[in-house]
Amino acid sequence: MGMISDLEHIKCTGLLEENYVGRLAYIYENEPHVVPSTYFFDKNNKRLLCFASNGHRIHALRQYNRVSFQVDHVESFRSWKSVQVHGIFEELAGERAKNGLKLFVDGVQNTIEHKNLERPHFLSLFSSKLQETDMPVVYSITLTKITGKAVTEPHK
Known about the structure:
- This protein is an alpha+beta fold.
- The radius of gyration is 16 Å and the shape is globular.
- Strands 1, 2, 3, 4, 5, 6, 7 and 8 form an 8-stranded antiparallel beta sheet that branches.
- It contains 4 helices and 8 strands, in the order βαββββαββααβ.
- The chain starts with a strand and ends in a 5-residue tail after the last strand.
- It comes from Euzebyella saccharophila.
- Pfam families: Pyridox_ox_2.
């Protein structure tokens, strides 16, 4: 097996930019929870943008806003990268929510198009939510800490 090493900051942010699905970890009633979540890495503002229906996750995040988020790229048992960020949840409202959702939709669409060489059509459904009064909860996770690890196969 290869050696586990720390990822440089630029490689951590690169992994966040290249992906759009990770796992959000949060505390609710003294219990840890981890859920898959689609995100967009807003590099300029050092934050992740996400959205969710107004349910368990949002209720928990409103009570305790410190979270962790993990993104992985696994090629094999001997070749993988993982980034973990710590951050602060903030619910966006009004124009900030609409702008955040638009940035999320455009960003995820571009990431998928770049990564998978396909343009996803399902994301147009999110755009219609921009006009609805019962919009999903749009939130950001402002990054306070970012770390990463990697394992690479040794060259033979």
